[in-house]
Amino acid sequence: MSLTDLLLGKPLATSEEHSEQIGASSGVAIFGLDGLSSAAYGPEAALTLLLPLGFAGIEHIVPITAAIIGLLLIVFVSYRQTIDAYPNGGGSYTVATENLGVSAGLLAAAALMIDYVLTAAVGISAGVGALISAVPTLQPHTLSLCLGILAVLTLINLRGVRDTGLIILVPTYLFIGSLLLLIGLGLFHTIVAGGHPHAVIHPPKLPGATEALSFWLLLKVFSSGCTAMTGVEAVSNGANAFREPRAPTAKKTLTVIIATLVALLAGIAFLCRAYNVGATDPNSPHYQSVLSELLQAVTGRGIFYWVAMSSILLVLALSANTAFAGFPRVLRVIALNGYLPRVFTLRGRRLLYSWGVYLLVLLTAMLLLIFRGVTDRLIPLYAIGAFLAFTLSQAGMVEHWRKNPGKGSRFKMLVNGIGAFATGITTLVVLVTKFVSGAWVTALLIPLLIMVMVMVHHHYERVRREISTDAPLDTTGLLEPFVIVPIDRWSRISEKALRLAMVMSSEVQAVHVMAEEDGQQVTICDEWEQMVVTPLRAANRPVPELVTLSSPFRFVLLPMVKHVLEQEKRYADRHIAVLVPELVVKHWYENLLHNQRGNLLKLLLLVRGNQRIFVINIPWYL
Amino acid sequence: MSLTDLLLGKPLATSEEHSEQIGASSGVAIFGLDGLSSAAYGPEAALTLLLPLGFAGIEHIVPITAAIIGLLLIVFVSYRQTIDAYPNGGGSYTVATENLGVSAGLLAAAALMIDYVLTAAVGISAGVGALISAVPTLQPHTLSLCLGILAVLTLINLRGVRDTGLIILVPTYLFIGSLLLLIGLGLFHTIVAGGHPHAVIHPPKLPGATEALSFWLLLKVFSSGCTAMTGVEAVSNGANAFREPRAPTAKKTLTVIIATLVALLAGIAFLCRAYNVGATDPNSPHYQSVLSELLQAVTGRGIFYWVAMSSILLVLALSANTAFAGFPRVLRVIALNGYLPRVFTLRGRRLLYSWGVYLLVLLTAMLLLIFRGVTDRLIPLYAIGAFLAFTLSQAGMVEHWRKNPGKGSRFKMLVNGIGAFATGITTLVVLVTKFVSGAWVTALLIPLLIMVMVMVHHHYERVRREISTDAPLDTTGLLEPFVIVPIDRWSRISEKALRLAMVMSSEVQAVHVMAEEDGQQVTICDEWEQMVVTPLRAANRPVPELVTLSSPFRFVLLPMVKHVLEQEKRYADRHIAVLVPELVVKHWYENLLHNQRGNLLKLLLLVRGNQRIFVINIPWYL
User: Fold this and answer.
1) Mean pLDDT in chain B?
2) Superfamily for B21-463?
């Protein structure tokens, strides 16, 4: 068993694909982690913006959460419909392309790609950030911790989809379980206490109000809270990873994820109001996360607190994993349409789209390095991509129902229309409120990515037009190539090259460049006469011509290339073959002892040559 | 005129060699700079070691300098004899090899290589060190200044030998002129004042004696002072750069260099005693160089002081240039004997041994980076190489006279014997006194270098034995190759490949690997029938066989390579040609859009293939 096998698992045959496909319970962990972990920061983001309203602000979290849940349910219904319509995956990109055209599809593609990379970077940095809040001594190692987690995630994912599911199953269900238990306990205490439960540890007092309630503020709170929705598109994007019957399994998974997320969001909002838990200033040294406050209020600082907090940290970091599952699949779909390099459609030894994983790791590492692993600096770039994709997907579904009218299609169109409008507004609000602090980067990247994709497509189309043909093999004008054999001095290598040239064509020309250093001039002509001409005459065979080129500037390759191009002009109806002998050494460092003229000649002929010149590489094994 | 031409000069033809050869006046600057600049640190090194004797120590500088001059004259006479015996250059390496055998030659070679690299590094760092003594604010930029000077020297040298001479002529003659003027003025004042001249600016008082005179101390002083002799072998190493009549021109150059150096050393020693100038502690903040003290004592701190000091700084930095002239030439001679890669024997566009220059620049930059450009840390590694080379050269000359007896050969043998003995002792003293502080590095590097050279030679010998042949062309068994054409789907490229295969052999086999992703399975067999078999049957030509290979693990290349190796076994008397089509794109980044299977296949075939498998590279230009 090799090290590679040990680290990455044995290669899987294409026929083993079935067993790599997943069911609903693994699916919840693999595709739901990102969406579910949003519960750990979505409500907090909303409560933080409500801080200026003071104690009164907490009251507003319930209606706002209700609005978010409403929007979430609309998106949920829309995506269930999408899975039915597109059971092979593709999500926003496929829906937008098929219903709104290529441009909208590329816009969705760019948005999704940015969203996924940011999901990975934000997930990792938020996890590390939370860890550092708990263990402040780790602060100086932020970036190393981020990159370390990225490395571990990469290794886990390169083992393939099924293994990934098994590894992340435990923390995900621990996270769901402990938060649901928290909510259940809190509800029980609240009901027992008649709506006013007694906190085990009281949450910190809120500062007085500094601002009055305004529609603009509520809109901002709503759009901040909407970060809780990022990641719910993963299931429909990756639907083809599910076991047959595919669509029902995928829809079941999505339902479980959304139901859990709704329960978490609703429960957290309800308990915040019941226990009077508000956000704390993230810039203050006494900062504490809302979930930590809630846990302390309901259960105190016991073992349960630490288990729940650990699962939150772990799930935040692992939420990046959703990007590992979704990003390569999105790239694959785009690449299948010819808008990204074809390498993203290839599956590696463990049946996953390896190159997509590599690109994700590279881009995430770059983001983490540029922003030094600090979540706050990454957040303003985030969410726009996700909401742009939501908007395009739902606008696409509106068009889908218009094109495919049927029973209930008018109602479905209305639902999707409301969704498209709401997420579209959210996209605009996020863009406007976060433009200066970083959203401009995303706004700039999207057109850039679209341009790249268009150029890639253009290139592939050009190549396809140029090389594809419906004509059968042309059997006319099959002429032997004119073979040129560069020769330095008589050796076993030149003998081998000459023999091969003579069996491949009856027209062979040996070429010698006179560029020897003074005192070393070899009289190739004498050797040629004795070693080649005499035996060939004796065997009554045609004798190749010997051409010697002089080189006043001691260059060997340029005169050779010039000569080849001249011969190409001379024999306008022939192919010109150049035999390049090459020493093959046992160890790479032995190459340092031999000049790389052979390789350079091949390169020069490739760069300056044309359709009718080709190279025959004669290896000589030492 | 291209940028390369502007920076490096136009390429020179081999026939222009004559005009690149130099006369005695340029030779003094090019090959003498290192030896002459030693006058700026040799006497100072001796005086520093005399410091513990206090005021009385200065007295001893005159007899010790006399001893050094005596040794220098012996070395001078020896090298004059060497130039006569070996007018084409090679110095210690050639002399030791021809007279003492290969092992002694390799020892000399290793010593010379180390010596030259250290000459470059020490010259540059000493120059920068002196500059920083004058302008202390430059201190933080030591390393950058060192690397900057290295870059300038590289550029100057890549223009070629003659241009180099012109550029360094001025500072060298300014240095010689101002030091000789200083000595002349000092002598004049001393004679006028009856042996006790009045100093314009008094040198600092010397501390009291802390140690008594001992033979061991004098030996150390002598060997430290001997650093003034480094660099005098450059002329005989590079003798073939001189204009004809070569030997007389070279000897004239050597005479001028040695005479000047003797005058400088004697003058400095005499004036030091006359003006009571001793060294100052190099670790004290009031450190001042001996030459600076002398200049102030004789002429004060006027314009002459600054001109002389500038020329000293410049010449120290430029003394590295001797290494640029000598190192590539030494490498060339060693490489001609097959002990170093052959690339060192090639001359570049400006007729110099470019690769030697590149290696020197690389090694010098590494040394400067490792030792942060501080001379003090480099010095202990230095001098051993030079004296080891002297010793071997002179021991070789002793053997030379023994082998070639003639008029005066016994006397010459005696002179060389004394030289060999004296320099041998010096080598040992330097090694012992500086072993712990850095000489061990050199002592370790020398056997390592010898090992590398022996291995290089071994490799070349093996290759030569394997590929050289005295047998003429074998005209029997000339069989057509068996040609394999990998085919993906029918396209213009596969058509071109197939047509070329068919003209080169009558036995062609097309191979298709079934590794397509699900849903994309191409029925190559149908296409083959329609596009290839039908037209060939119609034209009454042989039809190539189509082989399809299945690939359960989706690998494309490994089954192909396996198949090629199987065919090779099947046709034991044939060569197997594999046609590898390759897309040639206009811009490098377009390569990212195409898989590199062609290149990988070539690489795999090279690594896993053998003497009877070769690759035909079919380019397709987009």
Assistant:
1) 83
2) Amino acid/polyamine transporter I (1.20.1740.10)
User: Number of residue pairs across A and B with CB atoms under 8 Å?
Assistant: 197
B501 burial via Cβ count (<10 Å: 0-12, 13-18, 19+) = buried
> Angle between the A384-403 and A440-467 helix axes, to the nearest 10 degrees?
50
* 3-state SS class at A156: helix
Across the interface, which of B460, B467, B617 has its CB nearest the CB of A614? B617
Structure-token match 């035999």, residue found: A579
Write the secondary structure of A212-244 as one string of H (helix), E (strand) and C (coil): CCCHHHHHHHHHHHHHHHCCCCHHHHCHHHECC
Environment class of A387 (CB within 10 Å of its CB; exposed 0-12, middle 13-18, buried 19+): buried
* Count of helix runs (H) and strand runs (E) in chain B: 25, 5
**How is chain B split into domains, by residue range?**
21-463, 482-621
Tens-digit pLDDT profile for residues B94-113: 888 888 999 999 999 999 89
Q: How confident is the model at residue A425 (pLDDT cuts 50, 70, 90)?
A: confident
Say if CB B547 and CB B590 are below 8 A apart.
no
Give A 327-386 residues with CB within 8 A of chain B. 341-343, 345-347, 349
Q: Rounded CA gap, B612 and B614, in Å?
A: 7
Tell me if B614 and A616 make a contact (CB, 8 A cut-off).
yes
Q: Do A468 and B492 touch (CB under 8 A)?
A: yes
**Secondary structure (DSSP) of A86-121:** -TT--HHHHHHHHHH-HHHHHHHHHHHHHHHHHHHH
pLDDT tens-digit readout, A339-385: 998 888 877 655 567 888 899 999 999 988 988 877 767 766 777 88
B 443-462: CB under 8 A from A: 456, 459-460, 462
CATH number of A482-621: 3.40.50.620
* Strands of the B576-584 sheet, one edge to the other: A545-550, A508-514, A482-486, A576-584, A613-621, B613-621, B576-584, B482-486, B508-514, B545-550
Residue A554 falls in which region: left (phi positive, over 0), alpha (psi -120 to 50) or beta: left
Torsion of the alpha carbons at B105, B109, B111 and B116, rounded to the nearest 10: 150
Q: Give me the mean pLDDT over the B316-338 stretch.
A: 84
Q: How far apart are CA B422 and CA B410, in angstroms?
A: 18
B521-568 tens-digit pLDDT: 556 777 888 888 888 898 888 889 888 888 776 677 888 888 999 988
Max mean pLDDT range (A155-169, A175-189, B270-284, B606-620): A175-189
Give me the half-sphere count of Cα atoms (radius 13 Å) on the Cβ side of residue A520. 10
- CA nearest neighbour of A241 among A14, A18, A91: A18
- HEC states along B451-515? HHHHHHHHHHHHHHHHHCCCCCCCCCCCCCCEEEEECCCCCHHHHHHHHHHHHHCCCEEEEEEEC
Q: What would the mean pLDDT of A418-445 be, rounded to a whole number? A: 83
Distances (CA, A) of B565 to A520, A585, B609, B614, B615: 41, 19, 7, 11, 13
Residue A122, phi-psi category: left (phi > 0), alpha (psi -120 to 50), beta (remainder)? alpha
Dihedral, B325, B442, B261, B134 alpha carbons, nearest 10: 90
From B476, B534, B617, residue closest to A617, measured CB to CB: B617
Coil vs helix vs strand at A206:
coil
CATH code linked to domain A17-463? 1.20.1740.10
Q: Give the pLDDT mean for B318-338.
A: 84
Any B CB within 8 A of A200 CB: no
> How close does chain A come to B596, measured CA to CA in Å?
10
Domains A17-463 and A482-621 share a fold: no
